Amino acid sequence: MSTDNTIFWKRFHAAPVVGIARGYATDTVLRIGEAYAAAGLTTLEITINSPDPTASIARLREQQPTLNVGAGTVCTEADLDRALDAGAMFIVTPVLAEAVISRCVAAGVPVFPGAYTPTEIYRAWTLGAPAVKVFPAGQLGVQYLKDVLGPLNEVKLLPTGGVDLGNIQSFLAAGAVGVGMGSSLLDKALIAAGDFRGLEAHFSSVRAKSAYTLVG
């Protein structure tokens, strides 16, 4: 059965950043989520290879109802089952996991599959993915995004890996529908120090950059 994702997409487009929380225990994820929501960011991915990711997804959805909470690093249908059972609102894969993509599309669950080459990107798009995660984007650069969108101008791209405060606006100006951010967004030093107020300020800086729109 298809799902109405109007609220999901409204939140996503208001702050088109997918934060990637990898390797954090549930209590830390909840603190991150609190700062994330307070800063006005909206879409947060918990990787399935984190400690107790299902608990993190379920509890974060409960405690931060204004967030899009999803699961990342989903490579298999077993991973997908765990994520959906926990209440994941969207799915991110690091690779072209066709069975995962097809099931998400059939169920109406937003899925951002990982792809690298134009052929992989186009395959993910034709399978029905609403946007394709270009990974690792930092190795490819902004020009690669522009080059791909020349012939594949209808495809929605979500560059991930190597995106930071210094280049987020360039990726968006190049035509990205949003960006994925991991370590450059979830500052490990601030988190390790328990400085969640500082983390919120950092999130706010990213939120301001993500509001950039190309004029003209």
Describe this structure in words.
Keywords: Carbohydrate metabolism, Lyase. Belongs to the KHG/KDPG aldolase family. The chain has 216 residues and is an alpha/beta fold. The protein has one domain: Alpha-Beta Barrel (TIM Barrel). Helix content is 46%, strand content 14%. It has 11 helices and 9 strands. The strands form 3 sheets. The chain has a 4-stranded parallel beta sheet with strand order 3-2-1-9, sandwiched between helices. A 3-stranded parallel beta sheet has the order 6-7-8, with helices on one face. Strand 4 (91-92), helix 5 (98-107) and strand 5 form a beta-alpha-beta unit. The chain is globular.
Indicate the topology.
Layout: H1 6-14, E1 17-21, H2 26-38, E2 43-47, H3 53-63, E3 68-72, H4 77-86, E4 91-92, H5 98-107, E5 111-112, E6 114-115, H6 118-126, E7 132-134, H7 137-140, H8 142-149, E8 157-159, H9 168-173, E9 179-181, H10 188-192, H11 196-210
Parallel strand pairs: 1-2, 1-9, 2-3, 4-5, 6-7, 7-8
Query: Which secondary-structure class do the elements indicate?
Result: alpha/beta
Instruction: Please state the overall shape, judged from the principal axes of the Cα atoms.
Output: globular
Give the spatial strand order of the biggest sheet: 3-2-1-9
Q: What's the CATH H-level superfamily name? A: Aldolase class I
Query: Helicity level, as a percent range?
Result: 40-55%
Tally of helical segments = 11
Q: Compute the average pLDDT.
A: 95
Count of individual domains: 1
Just give the CATH class: Alpha Beta
Q: Whole-Å distance between the termini? A: 40 Å
Beta content comes to 5-15%
Biggest sheet layout: 4 strands, parallel
Using the coordinates shown, work out and report the CATH topology.
TIM Barrel
Subunit structure: Homotrimer.
Family: Belongs to the KHG/KDPG aldolase family.
GO molecular function: lyase activity
Pfam families: Aldolase
